[in-house]
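Dear Dr. H.,

I hope your travels went smoothly. While you were away I took the liberty of generating a structure for the chain from your last submission, since the lab meeting agenda had it listed for discussion. I wanted you to have the full record in hand beforehand rather than looking at slides cold. The sequence, exactly as received, is reproduced here:
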Amino acid sequence: MTEHESNNLNDNLPNDTATSLPEGDEIAAEQASADDKPVYRRGIKSFVIRAGRLTKGQEQALERKWTEWGLELADGPIVPSDVFGRAAHTVLEIGYGMGQSLVEMAVQAPEKNFIGVEVHLPGVGSLLNLAEEAGVINVRTYKDDAIEVLKLIPDNSIDTIQLFFPDPWHKKKHHKRRIVQTEFAQTLRRILKPGGIFHMATDWENYMEHMIEVMDAQAGYENIAGSGQCVERPDERPLTRFEKRGQGKGHGVWDIKYRKAD
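The corresponding predicted structure, in token form, is as follows:
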């Protein structure tokens, strides 16, 4: 789930939905990560599940389309070509919010397969509703923690992984909650095909610096723009209304792409 305590530029959520964890949970999280293992291995999540009611449209979309387009952890490992009934360039998006951007990409690239992962159920319902309205058939989604989903994806099976505007956890004491960490990066490398792309975007400059610091240190990746650099905003990433609003206020957005080395 991509939520933001400041200027969330994903197409998904209002700014006030982000919530810090209670102090007691922070203490437990500190204790859980005391052995310096990658944080998500110790139960420290990179997201907060926000309370939110399903709209009637979202609820009905889930009822109509989940059995057709929904993917379940309980079903076990997947083969993307089997999921879609075709072999095609496959994109995995982690945290798609309310789904507008993901559906727009699916409309613009019908030759590609898109798998989304989102823990916020209203967002999943919104995605299914938008996909149905748009008439796309090349989208599937999980409604689960991405870390659990990644365990079910085969090695060398994904062409592109997208992580747009994840929660920056801007307080230094919360940086361990940021999803971009060493083990996460290597997990993504496992599922990427040789030459596959990991595309990140953020409107938080310090998180951009963190992303580059983590990724430049990873074996088996190369920064497409060169060490320490960002790419120009790519055309394939839709410009959301939040991003347009941010641009009007002079806010920066950084796109970063890494290629899996052969």
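Two observations you may find useful: Confidence is low (pLDDT under 50) at residues 1-42. The longest helix spans residues 56-69.

With kind regards,
E. W.
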